[in-house]
Amino acid sequence: MSVIIKNGRVIDPGRINGLADVLIENGTIAAVGSGLKAPAGATVIDATGKWVLPGFVDLHVHFREPGFEYKETIATGAAAAVAGGFTSVCCMPNTQPVNDNQSVTEFILDKAKAAGLANVFPIGAITKGSEGKELAEFGDLRAAGCVAVSDDGKPVMNGMVMRRALEYARAFDLPVVDHCECTHLSEGGCMHEGQVATEMGLHGIPSASEDVMVARNLALAELTGGRLHLAHLSTAGSVRMVREAKARGIRVTAEACPHHFLLTEEAVREFNTNAKMNPPLRSRKDVEAVKAGLKDGTIDVIATDHAPHAAFEKEREFDYAPFGIVGLETAWGLALVLAEEGVLTVEQVVSALTIQPARAFGLAKGTLAVGADADVTIVDPEAQWVVDPEQFKSKGRNTPFAGWKLKGRVVSTLVGGRVVYP
Q: What pLDDT does 1 receive?
């Protein structure tokens, strides 16, 4: 089966940024260049005025299945992914049961195959039951198809357990992903500790709750030589420490989410539970530090931390509503704001959504190189649209960006050379 994408601006970071055609043969990239001729019987996609990009890669999503299918299923999550231009996503293990063994990993992969949409890469748990005590069997998880390990949603509080995880994971070349939060410092908190929390009478989560765990994890990565990936950085202190660690040669990668580089604690003022996430929205100083980290490469990856909840769960008092927002279907438009603001170039935005996350987890994705899987996202850079949660493919509607006017929209997504969206 042949597909040719004609007349688009191809942006494949480090390879090409200009007008070109993309030829796909049997699910792989066969050629990229100007004036390519369509083979007989090929499907022709006209991308005039559009950008043709490698399919986006999200290292951090919660698809909730098994156990919490009322929030999201692998099928609805994958539909949200391709609608947002994401052709590959990595699922966190905080399901029920926790993905700490081969059988759960295989279940997730079977469901993803049946959905036939995005590539779904499971992330296994660091500890059995994500209880922070006994390491899971990393070798079994790797063999079953896991691409990283994490107890995301919960930090690994025990420093020795985290050390052993980094050491053990080296044998399988697995990145160890940590949700950096000292629960002793954040206990009872529901938003950033600062003036806004004080004025609203809400218990705060100090920046130090993230900073101290980032510092610990970096020290352990230096000690062990393990591959450390830090999820959803949100503080100026975290960015500074990662920058210094990279300068010393520590094996660390890091991600930031659109809500942490576009919103501050001010978004919580109306007790909007859709602005409640963990780590919380922080100060303007922190937001600027995250942007600076993206600009200088300290932060490698833009991820979504897509975390759907049912409407009734979010429609509660702020203190009791769950943490988390959806992000797959808004990420591209929100990430482009960084280009509009001059923080990143368009190519840097694309890189942070494609080749950089693929490299962080060792995935053969995020590129339009000849021979690569034909995972392609086509976007209209001029299309203006308003975020309407009722139009989401995800079951979740919990976004603080409802009503935002964005520029740049995904118009088509291909996985393995097959159009899966629209």
A: 84
Instruction: Output the six-digit token pair for 322.
Output: 């769950």
| CA–CA distance, 16 with 36 (Å, rounded to integer) | 15
Q: Does residue 8 lie within any of the structural domains? A: yes
pLDDT at residue 38 tops 90:
no
Q: Do residues 412 and 327 both lie within one domain? A: no
Name the E strands within 47-141. 51-54, 56-61, 86-91, 119-122
Radius of gyration, CA atoms only, the chain? 20
> Residues 181, 121: one domain?
yes
Q: Are residues 43 and 77 in the same domain?
A: no
Q: Helices 208-224 and 236-247 sit at what angle, rounded to 10 degrees?
A: 20
Q: Catalytic annotation on 305?
A: yes
pLDDT of the residue at 392: 98
Burial of 113 (0-12, 13-18, 19+ CB in 10 A): exposed
Q: For the chain, how many structural domains are there in total?
A: 2
Three-class SS of residue 31?
strand
Which of 100, 305, 373, 375 is flagged as catalytic? 305
Ramachandran assignment for 100, one of left (phi > 0), alpha (psi -120 to 50 degrees), beta (any other): alpha
State pTM to two decimals.
0.96
Q: Are 167 and 181 in contact (CB under 8 A)?
A: no
Amino acid at 246: K
Environment class of 360 (CB within 10 Å of its CB; exposed 0-12, middle 13-18, buried 19+)? buried
